[in-house]
Amino acid sequence: MTAPSPPTASSPTETSTAETSPTETSSGERHLEHAEVVAALATATAALDDAEDRPGQVEMAELVDAAIASGRHLVVQAGTGTGKTLAYLLPAVRAHQKVVVATATKALQDQLAGKDLPFLDEHVGGFEWSVLKGRSNYVCRQRVQELLDDRQGRLDLPTDDPMLQSVLTWADATEIGDRAELPIEPRPSVWEAVSVTSQECPGAAKCPSGERCFAEAARARAAEADVVIVNTHLYGTHLAAGGVILAPHDVVVIDEAHRFEEVVSSTSGLELSAGRLTAAAYAIGRVLEDDISSQLLGDASNLGGLLDNYVGDRLDPVPKAIITMLTSIRGRLDEAAAALRKLPDDKSDVVARSNRAQTQITSLSIDLATVMSVPDTDVAW
User: Would you place residue 156 in the very low, low, confident or very high pLDDT band (cuts 50, 70, 90)?
Assistant: First the structure.
């Protein structure tokens, strides 16, 4: 299974079937053709504590090297103990091309970033690597600043919450801002208070803290790196967005590719839920003091109750009761957007909150319009 965007792709997986070799040469000829990669692999693996002869690893490295060199796709099935990560990483880092590695699990992403790539960097070298995660994985400097400055008591959790205080202390000291650095796993409500999603971030240009944004800094590092580690969800989002999230790249490796179809199906669609409407209502309530926010919270509750009646059903067409409710919600969002546009722009924190709320409203409104008039190419359920 390969991603449709980059011109070349090598995709190791444990469950997919293997294609034939991308070259027409015999095994011996192929070995000579890729002798440099084989030699580099031998040098690297010899430094392992449990070094051993792994013919399958060598063969896989040769095939990956050939796929990259010839610009052809490759699917590999390799069992446990083959040494798959080094078999695709080493030819990738020696290709002198821009490479993206997409992993299906956080554990594998951490293994690549914390073990395999540092190991290759030490014993092979000659490349720069970086890890890039979705925006919500990084602490938002602007949200943190607003929490520290806020004295109005309109937040969803008190600023003296012990866990929140621990996160704020870490946020003041971190250089990367990655949630994975935290020594504790924060409650969802705590992390939501100090982070933003792509659906609510207005972008660095509209944010007072944009020049110091951790997420933007991570993207800048990824743009300069030779090898970028992402998760498959972010890569699926990149494809769904038309290739604008990641920097242009030449090679993509989809690790655990048997799970990639499900991820791409998820990221290529949209999800409209009571939770999204609730989040937008809170964002609006942090800026506006009228009753629009409370009305939207009521709408969210009603929407959740209505959708419960259709769990597991295909909505073709979308029931009139849902259309009626979404029409009402869209009108309420339009009211909120109009009220936000009238706010004065003399306070940077108010502008920042307003921009985030307007970004959420825009995202929701677009999705509402899609659900209210489902394209022929889509399926609603």
Answer: low
Residue 61 neighbours by CB distance under 10 Å: 27
3-state secondary structure of 26: coil
Q: Is the dihedral of CA 219, 282, 142, 209 positive or negative?
A: positive
Q: What is the pLDDT of residue 158?
A: 62
What lies within 8 Å, CB to CB, of 155 at 6+ separation is 147, 193, 286
In this predicted structure, what is the pLDDT of residue 159?
A: 61
Instruction: Count Cα neighbours of 45 within 13 Å in the Cβ-side half-sphere.
Output: 22
Return the percent helix, strand and coil in the chain, to nearest 5: 55, 10, 35
**Joined tokens for residue 135:** 């925006």
CB atoms within 10 A of CB 103: 23
Amino acid identity, residue 274? Answer: A
Residue 33 has a pLDDT of: 57
State how far the alpha carbon of 58 is from the alpha carbons of 77, 83, 211, 300, in Å.
Answer: 14, 9, 45, 56
To the nearest whole percent, how much of the chain has pLDDT over 70? 88
Q: How far is CA 57 from the centre of its chain?
A: 29
- Looking at residues 350-356, what average pLDDT do you find? 91
The tokens of 2 are what?
Answer: 């390969």
Contact partners, residue 38, CB within 8 Å, separation at least 6 = 31, 58, 61, 62
8-13 and 251-254 as β-strands: parallel, antiparallel, unpaired? parallel
Whole-model pTM above 0.85? no
* Angstrom distances, CA of residue 2 to CA of 12, 69, 72, 258: 10, 16, 10, 10
User: How much is the pLDDT for 246?
Assistant: 94
Q: Whole-angstrom Cα distance, residue 171 to residue 165? A: 10
- Which amino acid is residue 195, in one-letter code? S
Q: ∠ CA 48-85-244 to the nearest 5 degrees?
A: 140
